[in-house]
Amino acid sequence: MTHSTPHRQNTHTLLNVAVVGHTNTGKTSLIRTMLRSTEFGVIEDAAGTTRHVEQATLAADNEPILNVYDTPGLEDSRALFAHIRKLQAKAKLQLPVQVLEHFVTHVSSNDPLEQEAKVIRQVLRSDILLYIVDVREPFLEKYRLELDILAQAAKPIIPVFNFTAGHQHELDQWRQNLAAYRMHATLEFDTVAFSFEAEKRLYQKIQTLVESHYTPLQKLIDYRARLWNQTCLAAAKRITELVVSVACYRESKTSEHHRITAALVEDRLHDFVRKAEQRCLHDLLAIFNFSEKDVAMQKIPVSNGQWQLDIFAPGILKAYGLDVGSAAAKGAAAGAGIDLVVGGMSLGAATALGAIAGAGWSTFKRYGDEIKASVKGTKWQCADETTLIILYLRQKQLLKKLMHRGHAAQETVQVDKAENETLPEDWNKLISALRQNPQWQESSAMRNSHLQYQSIETQLVQALLES
User: Fold this and answer.
1) Which domain holds residue 93?
2) Predicted structure pTM score
3) Pairing, β 15-21 against β 128-134
4) Are 187 and 77 part of one and the same domain?
5) Alpha carbon distance 247, 228 (integer Å)
6) Terminal-to-terminal C-alpha distance of the chain
7) pLDDT per residue over 36-89, tens digit each?
8) Would you say residue 351 lies in a domain?
């Protein structure tokens, strides 16, 4: 998909969709969300931000399907309605659409209605209109006049309700008012609280109203669905990779370590976890097309690539609904580290010697390093279970936020609490298996083809994507 300033090449073969409506209702926001891009147009709280018609093309597998046009807001619908009524009175035998054509042909460049003329001109060139409604606004006279004027173009109109989250009563009022205008093919499409299903329904409604473009629109629907599923799956797999790498990570720790040396080991562990999470965060932003330069604008709680709420910060347990005395976190503070447990038993020296005496070659081959190291008094410090829980819950919540975030959203994303998120079934077994296979820390053909690893990955991915 591409976007650019208006041009007319290939428009005779593509569906032309005009996005129209009053100023500041979210027209540019809708197109940004459709494009998955924060680059299209300019979004500000001030009215009349879009001053010219801008065009973007949506494609499926590099095949252009439709052109969508962002139009300036209708700022003075009362004056426009009065002017068109005068034109109609002078030319009683002309059709309403012919009156509109006369208006856009004869308007001057410095006419007070020049902005409105740009909108009507694009409306006449388009096959279908998306009329964007801010449901937080009451159904005022200016909206009635706009709908009356747009209806004269004899083009199918789909009212699109924006900013619907938390405004059910206002939405119901808008539906009732538009029903009086025989407009029943309405759609909820919140450009801030994004839903892929809403976008899919938008294309389906266009299909029903512009039958001649049904087949290419179905290509677009199928393509966007595949793309969305691939995006969400890639994100879930990236989070799984983070959990795996941190669960498998270990720092050697000998019993003779000085306290300062032990503190350095713990610092290295903390540093590894923090950096691993930052890389995951950046990758997730890229997967959903929120680039690095958008981080500040999007206000995701990140500063210079660092989470503002550090995973080892005081109070993080409480923020994530974890009780320090609970079964999940008992006896550990976030990041305190634990000694590696293999096969459900601590590898103390005595146990290790017994294991050497009774172990077969396959067992020694797998756990030989642990056994030999334990004899020498070496243990491994790993991220504790609480750290892994917080890591998983934070990524799961962030994934959900990104999956439901439109590319026009401006408000701060809060990713600091996750009391409602749940861990996968058999979480303890999954983490135990990962700790026992430190060789899985980095991706490899051997790891990725291992049946146990594939099972762990599938369970984590499914848990992340469940609603």
Assistant:
1) 2-209
2) 0.77
3) parallel
4) yes
5) 29
6) 29
7) 877 775 444 444 444 689 999 999 998 999 999 999 888 888 999 999 999 888
8) no
